[in-house]
Design brief:
The protein is α+β, with helices and mostly antiparallel strands and 296 residues long. It contains 8 helices and 15 strands. The chain folds into 2 domains: 117 residues, Aminotransferase class 4, branched-chain amino acid transferase, N-terminal domain (D-amino Acid Aminotransferase, Chain A, domain 1, 2-Layer Sandwich); 161 residues, D-amino Acid Aminotransferase, subunit A, domain 2 (D-amino Acid Aminotransferase, Chain A, domain 2). Helix 5 links the parallel strand 7 and strand 8. Helix 6 crosses helix 8. The structure holds N-(5'-phosphopyridoxyl)-D-alanine. N-(5'-phosphopyridoxyl)-D-alanine (PDD) binds next to helix 6 and strand 13.
């Protein structure tokens, strides 16, 4: 596999970053994951807008222009002969002269890496039976709106889910409301058919898939309300699902060993997935005109 490593395209086994990189020592960096299908980046512009937001919040300069970055991503895809792929892009603050918690006085050059991950379609079991999840306290930091590379808390939460035999974890704030999944946004459908998801704030990452899906659902006349929902509402929901770049929309059918609704993926989730898949095809063929910018 060929990766992009701060100015050079090289084999994965030859790609290395400094042990003094602020990303390595402080988790000081931002990232994005963009899904390409037949060389088309699904909402690529929005991902780059969100990357800009994360970098701005962290005061890390762009290592190159957004257009140059697009070209690098393209080269990575072409060099690996991968047209349908997930590209992981990471930008860290770089290598300072000395270790200090404050940003280096003499700014260092940011370090940009890109790794293509082969796209695995959502497993048959998850598509047809839905995911099982556990709930767990949200122990992340207070700026989850930044797509920061420091991922220890969600990683521990996901490990707890794995050890409990579940597919994922939905995290719970101190008020007893769901924030989001370990690496996805969380939705429920109420018994009256209303779609609920938490509004953007510092408590969640404003997902690209989430934002697109809400717009598509509203255009289709569905009622989507952005408000926090409690674990008790999740357990009484008719349906639940997650959204994320690498899986689009995946049903959730069990939570903490309780079945959600019928315990099978429901019609609203199916409908939303098909709306989203249609959108991906339309955007790929240039038939989906939307020049709006992504605002966090
Ligand atoms: N994760 N919330 C969190 C905490 C996430 O890490 C992600 C994505 C999402 C969904 O955002 P989007 O729809 O823009 O992918 C929500 C990526 C896929 C990852 O870390 O691999």
């Amino acid at each position: 596999m060929i990766v992009y490593n701060n100015g050079v395209y090289c084999r994965l086994s030859q790609a290395a970053v400094s042990v003094q990189d602020r990303g390595y020592q402080f988790g000081d960096g931002a990232y994005e994951v963009i899904h390409y299908t037949d060389h088309h980046g699904v909402d690529e512009d929005w991902h780059l807008d969100r990357l800009d937001y994360s970098l701005t919040q962290l005061q890390i300069p762009w290592p190159m222009s957004a257009n140059a970055l697009r070209q690098c991503i393209r080269h990575v895809r072409l060099l690996n002969k991968l047209s349908t792929v997930n590209i992981y892009i990471s930008i860290t603050r770089g290598v300072p002269a000395t270790r200090d918690f404050a940003f280096p006085k003499t700014p260092c050059a940011p370090v940009l890496t890109m790794i293509p991950y082969r796209h695995k379609p959502v497993a048959e079991r998850l598509r047809t039976k839905g995911m099982t999840i556990i709930t767990a306290p949200d122990q992340r930091w207070g700026r989850c709106d930044i797509k920061a590379i420091a991922l220890l808390a969600p990683s521990l939460a996901k490990q707890a889910a794995t050890e409990a035999g579940a597919d994922d974890v939905w995290m719970v704030d101190t008020q007893g409301c769901i924030t989001e999944g370990s690496s996805c946004n969380a939705f429920i459908v109420t018994p009256t058919g209303e779609i609920l998801t938490r509004p953007p704030s510092h408590a969640i990452l404003k997902g690209i898939t989430r934002t697109r899906l809400i717009a598509l659902a509203r255009d289709a006349g569905l009622k989507v309300t952005e408000r926090p929902f409690a674990v008790s509402e999740l357990k009484e929901a008719a349906e639940a699902f997650i959204t994320r770049t690498t899986g689009f929309i995946i049903p959730v059918t069990w939570v903490d060993k309780y079945s959600i609704g019928t315990g099978h993926p429901g019609p609203v989730t199916h409908n939303l997935l098909s709306l989203y898949e249609t959108f991906v095809q339309e955007q790929k063929h240039g038939r989906f005109a939307d020049t709006t910018r992504f605002v966090v």
